[in-house]
Specification:
heterodimer; A: alpha/beta; Rossmann fold; four-stranded parallel beta sheet; 8 strands; B: mainly beta; Porin
């Protein structure tokens, strides 16, 4: 029979044996983790080959509803810096992940804490009192700023600040690469802005499109496009059949030309609304994705724009 | 009700508070109605538990958690401290440390508050080995994240052991305190699923010399699309060995498994399979006797948000023992739970 001491000894042995592996990893590049792949891409652009930039999410997930996966805890424990979207987007899982990681650098006021929203001019910040009867309202403002290249430029400043604090020896390199990154984003913005000219031309007073959830606010602002509103009556709350029926009658007469939705929005509801309203659907990724999705931010932005144009061209 | 009002007022206040204090209240209401056999159902609805939770950083190193709960105990509402502990996730690298009173960090259900469980009634194996709500005690617990290329967390703890499970008495000094350990790992699953598995060990020798050793495993797998938990598979299996002070021993084995499917964004159906047996049961002639209790509980869940849950279940237990007539009991169960205030982030 296994004795108590045998069990304790086994645990101790396991910890001592495996504890040696960080020494083996000491020669590798420092790990900078982001919650979303878009930030991982941006950080790699800014840092070059000085750090290993990775993300926790793969890009297909709904960033509002993510489980605190044990694997996230392991990776955060190894990270030098952890960058988050902030504005409570990750509030359902990151506090638990950070705490379970036991990594003091990325918690509280640690040097590896990187909340990119600190550098962002936030849209849709509620001004009056809010409570849960209004749905999943983000009290600090709309967190989907990573869909605008101009907001990435704003957020990049916070990234550079945190990177410089941790790796002062690379300060000049990060500043120089950040300027190149900002230029690249400005050029991307101009190119996609030009591409979306047909949508602006077709846009009426009430807006060119209707969203499922208000996650394209920053994207639309960047390209001077207007949204008629969201299919959700309250954020994070599935729309009722009555809401779908009512809104579907209003949208087209108001000049709406397409429905814009994320891949993780409920497809059955979207299909139903498309059928009722007679509007074409543009279902797009909201993040860079590993695998078959966009591998760079430029490709990602162009894919969204192309999907919208394709939808409007099929509009009756 | 006073707890709820206090929670609402405190929550509003905490939004202005710079200390980081988060306050929440969770209410768990259950109705039980007899169906067949000698069910222990109370044939009434009641507030089973109202829990009031305060979590806050204490300083730059420690955070504090305090949970009060009011229960129905013998027809009376009893208010008691569930958890009152200090914890640190920054004191020792890759480690979490907590000391005070808490639910022991072993198994699956024992690590979560009851209103977060995916079933209404406590599975039999938990009732018999860990008590109705789980084992809570005062002591110290240490968790270490082993630095390897997979998630591997080792937890070990020791608590007073004066009492075991859920007790309102002071208990007596045990011959050996409650000692426990858990090794947990995780495995990614196909179709973007994810699982966590734990191996658990607990031992205690009470003041009368009764030694209990529990060894077992827990498993949780989830597949999620957006807000919808498409499929949940959760189970635990344990064996307990009892060694009596006057000689003799007994071994019991039990477990449960609950698959739960999504029927849409807010509708879920699950089936709790529950099993328990005494491996050393003897008849009057000293011969080994086959015996088992098997439970089946189909459950419908309406979960319109992470803050409210409504459940309807039909629970059946089939108690069989060699040489004795089969006993079948069943009951209907209804549950409503809700949370108000700033509930902390969930673990996997």
């Amino acid at each position: 029979m296994i004795s108590k001491m045998d069990v304790y000894f086994s645990f101790l042995l396991l910890i001592l044996n495996l504890g040696a592996s960080p020494l083996l990893q000491a020669q590798s590049k420092p790990l900078v983790l982001s919650t979303i792949p878009d930030f991982a891409w941006m950080i790699q652009e800014i840092t070059g080959d000085t750090v290993d930039s990775q993300s926790l999410l793969k890009g297909q997930e709904d960033p509002h509803f993510v489980d605190a996966l044990p694997d996230f805890i392991r990776r955060v424990a190894d990270a030098k810096i952890v960058c988050i979207v902030g504005l409570d987007l990750e509030i359902g899982y990151m506090p638990s992940v950070l705490s379970r990681s036991g990594n003091a650098s990325v918690q509280g006021s640690g040097p590896g804490v990187c909340d990119i929203s600190k550098a962002i001019t936030v849209l849709e910040k509620p001004t009056g009192p809010i409570d849960r009867s209004m749905g999943d309202v983000h009290a600090a403002g709309n967190p989907h700023y990573f869909l605008s290249p101009l907001k990435l430029v704003e957020g990049g400043r916070e990234v550079v600040r945190v990177l410089t604090r941790n790796f002062p020896e690379h300060q000049a390199l990060y500043n120089q690469r950040y300027r190149s990154f900002a230029d690249k984003m400005q050029k991307l913005h101009k190119s996609v802005y030009d591409k979306l000219a047909p949508l602006r031309k077709a846009q009426g007073e009430s807006g060119i499109l209707i969203e499922y959830h208000r996650e394209f606010v920053y994207f639309l602002e960047a390209y001077d496009l207007k949204s008629y509103g969201s299919i959700e009556e309250k954020p994070g709350v599935p729309p009722s059949a009555g809401r779908l029926a009512e809104l579907s009658k209003q949208a087209k007469p108001a000049g709406v030309k397409l429905i814009l939705a994320a891949e993780y929005n409920p497809q059955r509801t979207l299909k139903r609304f498309a059928d009722l309203s007679g509007l074409p659907l543009a279902i797009v990724p909201t993040m860079i994705q590993a695998g078959g999705g966009a591998q760079s931010y430029e490709e990602h932005q162009n894919r969204i724009a192309d999907s919208m144009l394709k939808a409007i061209n099929t509009s009756p | 009700m006073a707890l709820i009002l206090l929670g609402q007022a405190a929550s509003a206040w905490s939004q202005q508070d710079p200390s980081g204090l988060k306050i929440s209240a969770a209410v768990d209401m259950v109705a039980q109605f007899k169906d067949k056999g000698e069910s222990s159902a109370k044939d009434k609805a009641e507030v089973r538990e109202a829990e009031f939770l305060l979590v806050s950083p204490i300083d730059h190193v420690f955070k504090g958690q305090l949970a009060f709960a009011a229960h129905q105990e013998g027809g009376e509402a009893v208010l008691e401290i569930h958890e009152a502990y200090m914890a640190s996730s920054v004191l020792i690298p890759r480690s979490n440390l907590r000391f005070g009173q808490y639910f022991l960090g072993i198994g699956r259900l024992n690590r979560f508050h009851r209103h977060e469980w995916p079933m209404i009634e406590t599975p039999l194996v938990h009732k018999r080995f860990f008590d109705e709500e789980g084992v809570l005690d005062t002591g110290i617990e240490y968790s270490y994240l082993v630095p390897v290329d997979l998630y591997l967390e080792v937890t070990a703890g020791v608590t007073n052991g004066f009492v075991y499970g859920h007790s309102h008495s002071e208990g007596e000094k045990p011959k050996s305190p409650t000692q426990y350990a858990r090794v947990a790992s995780s495995i990614p699953l196909p179709l973007q699923g994810y699982s966590q598995i734990g191996i658990n060990y607990l031992t205690r020798t009470d003041s009368a010399g009764l030694k209990a050793v529990i060894f077992g495993s827990d498993f949780t797998a989830k597949w999620r699309t957006g807000r919808t938990l498409d499929f949940l598979l959760q189970g635990e299996v344990y064996q307990r060995s009892l060694q009596f002070s006057g000689g003799g021993s007994e071994r019991n084995l039990g477990g449960y498994l609950i698959p739960q499917f999504s029927l849409g964004e807010v509708h879920y159906v699950g089936l709790l399979f529950d099993f328990y047996t005494n491996l050393d049961l003897k008849d009057a002639g000293g011969q080994s006797t086959q015996n088992s209790i098997v439970g089946l509980t189909p459950t419908y869940t309406l979960k319109v948000s992470e803050f409210s849950t409504l459940r309807l279940a039909h629970q059946t237990y089939n108690d069989t023992q060699e040489g004795r007539e089969k006993r079948l009991t069943s009951q209907w169960l209804l549950q409503a739970t809700y949370m108000i205030g700033a509930h902390p982030a969930h673990d996997f």
